[in-house]
Amino acid sequence: VPALAAGSAGVPAWLWASADVSTVGRTRFVNRLAIPPLATGRRDTDGARVYSLRAAAGTRRFKPGRPTRTWGFDNGHLGPTLRAMRGETVRIDVRNTLRETTTVHWHGMHLPARMDGGPHQPIPPGGAWSPTWRIDQPATTLWYHPHPHGATARHVYRGMAGLFIIDDPADRRLGLPARYGVDDIPVIVQDRKFDGDNQFDESRPLIGGVGLIGDTLLVNGTIGPYHDVTTERVRLRLLNASNARTHRFALSAGRTFTLIGTDGGLLPEPYETHTVQLTPGERAEVVVRLRPGERIVLRSMPPDLNVNFWNSRFEGGDDAFDVLELRAAPRLAPSAAPPAALAPPPRLAPFGPGRVDRRFKLSGHKINERRMGMDRIDFRIDRDRTEIWELRNTNGTPHTFHVHDTQFQVLSVNGAAPPPELRGWKDTVYARPGAPIRIAVRFRGYADPNHPYMYHCHLLYHEDQGMMGQFLVTEPGRSPGPPPLTQDGH
Ligand code: C2O
Ligand code: CU
């Protein structure tokens, strides 16, 4: 059990130690932002787009001194950006050259459960796995990462993660910045702690907390990164790939950016805002406008503190970080403003409170008082049936809620209609202590009586501890409805 700091309401000392780190205004942006390479891939004879990924150990020189031992795809750390068009069939040939079993999960992807890459699709050392499916969802920024039960946190922390971008040719008319690595920039944010030997520090106590919290940010694996901007607007595809830390992104000098997309696609309309808060696993696409010659810093500010002191510590305390410096050239190529309408809004159910079909209580590393059982199916649901779920965090620690295979619609947060940033498709949502959330979910198309999908907290330590459950999607009429709930849900 970690030592407790005296008089601190039982907050473990290691959390104190990690709190109140601030690099804001002190960062030397000395490294050009690494852009994950686009996977090249090839066309199969049957027309499928084929990519290969190799899970491997490697090393990476993040900072002066010894290189850091890492895991990753292809290149020792992180992985190439996979990219596919809506309507295309893809196949990913994954090989595992690690000395440990891993899996590769396609976070946010609509696909058959056998292809999902969760804990039931292990790839043993030396093994291979070739999932294939048809891309059938709106353009957006998804990601891939390992999901072996009990070891996800360690595998991701060592560096296994990459982006999976989905394109929709119909969106070209929107004129959004779309030149990868030029004005359409992946921004994978992860906090890490280095030991005295430059190695990732996995040693901090994990008992009772949120898991691995770092004091150094890696952005696409770069410390202190800058990006040279040559256009009036840039699109940033933000991914919080940290194990536990919530990042509340904001720009320097009180500048705003335009939020255009969230987990599952573009928002109905652009939203001009000062901040966007992402818990682990969540994504956001923002458009930043620059003036010639200026420098703007993207920052990760402390999460908004509409929670008590205890929670703010767990969410990363008062830590604030410089994330990325955008350096505008003296002359910028013109780019169009995002149009007033971006995508059709989710319409599974009307916004606001209403009936509830199923409840999920998040508490104490358990969901509905149970820990994950690999051999236990927690519920069954008919395909193509819309259900209203209520998520309730009852124990004061921050949690998130992620569901595989689908993008859901947030109907209400604490009884109120969702804020603009929660009005598009989502696959992961922050479950703030004491603020129930209602979502409308539907699992389209694929029924499979033998392979479950997962739902879980995306704080990876919690997930590994068993804050996860599994469900089957069945043919219509095969699943009993959800258990009856009384009016107030007890
Ligand atoms: Cu990003 Cu079940 O995970
Ligand atoms: Cu949790």
Question: Can you offer a commentary on this structure?
Answer:
This protein has a six-stranded mixed sheet with strand order 1-14-22-21-16-19, with no helix packed on it. Mean pLDDT is 90; it is low at 1-19, 305-313 and 486-490. The chain has three domains: 13-29 and 175-333, Cupredoxins -  blue copper proteins (Immunoglobulin-like, Sandwich); 33-167, Immunoglobulin-like; 358-474, Cupredoxins -  blue copper proteins (Immunoglobulin-like, Sandwich), CATH 2.60.40.420. Strand 17 (257-262) and strand 18 (265-273) form a beta hairpin. The radius of gyration is 21 Å and the shape is globular. Helix content is 5%, strand content 37%. With 490 residues, the chain is mainly beta. Residues 105, 107, 145, 147, 281, 402, 404, 454, 456, 458 line the site of CU-O-CU linkage. It is an enzyme of class 1 (oxidoreductase).
